[in-house]
From TrEMBL:
It holds the Pfam family PAS_3. One of its GO terms (molecular function) is protein histidine kinase activity. It is an enzyme of class 2 (transferase). It comes from Gottschalkia acidurici (strain ATCC 7906 / DSM 604 / BCRC 14475 / CIP 104303 / KCTC 5404 / NCIMB 10678 / 9a) (Clostridium acidurici). Residues 1-45, 107-168 form the PAS domain. This is PAS/PAC sensor signal transduction histidine kinase. Residues 185-235 form the PAC domain. It comes from the Bacteria.
Length: 235
């Protein structure tokens, strides 16, 4: 049966992977007319060859992930579910439902790239919830590289940052948490290195997040080590 105005692409295959039927939205999804698809192997449209033995394993309502090539050469990622219809012991027909998840896959790939950048950065990158409770959402490994404190130490004790802060800057740290500072300007701070006990200059570029009620609920930002710059300024 052929359906119109649906997001999913439905195929009917025989056990050799030959397309016997396909929904009429194949033009919108793949860019091919139905007559150019029916009678051909599904592998003619697959970027990576599909193991047709998968359909002969008598699976029922199984999931499969495939890459298909559109008529313009673009690759689309399809989340697939198939069901085998049997006659006695042999599979006679395979019904497949496919949905295009390309945009989600690409977004996930972008997030992976951003995470790799953050993980390798020398700057300390963080995201911390202020409400309903104080807790870190993310803290990159640069914290340990710069100051000797592990990510886990900060997750276990979100107030550890106050212990690290040079006493003259406690007030600034508190105002940052309460939102009483100008977030358009970098916040200059001094933090103690756990291993050496020395205080190091940092410049914190803070971004506030507010809820619908206008309450400050999250901070995320980048802390950059400016110790060398400060030493040059003092000299």
């Amino acid at each position: 049966m052929i359906y119109k105005n649906i997001r999913e692409l439905y195929l009917e295959l025989d056990i050799d992977g030959i397309i016997k039927n396909i929904t009429s939205n194949c033009m919108e999804i793949l860019g091919y007319e139905r007559q150019l698809i029916i009678g051909k192997s599904i592998n003619e449209f697959a970027v990576e060859e599909i193991d047709l033995n998968t359909f002969k394993d008598k699976g029922n309502s199984e999931e499969l992930y495939v890459l298909l090539r559109k008529s313009d050469g673009q690759t689309i990622h399809m989340d697939t579910k198939y069901e085998c219809i049997y006659n006695k012991e042999e599979s006679q027909q395979v019904n497949i439902s496919l949905i295009d998840v390309t945009k989600y896959v690409l977004e996930e790939e972008k997030l992976k790239i951003l995470l790799q950048i953050c993980e390798k950065s020398n700057d300390m990158i963080y995201s911390i919830d202020l409400k309903p409770e104080l807790r870190y959402n993310y803290l990159n490994p640069a914290m340990e590289k710069n100051l000797g404190y592990t990510t886990q130490e900060h997750i276990d004790d979100p107030l550890l940052v106050f212990e690290m802060t040079y006493p003259d800057y406690y007030d600034i740290q508190s105002k940052k948490k309460s939102g009483e500072i100008d977030f358009n300007k970098p916040v200059v701070m001094k933090y103690r290195n756990k291993l050496t006990g020395k205080y190091i200059w940092f410049e914190d570029y803070v971004n506030p997040i507010y809820n619908e009620a206008g309450e400050l609920v999250r901070l995320y930002g980048i802390n950059r080590n400016i110790q060398e710059r400060k030493e040059l300024e003092e000299n």
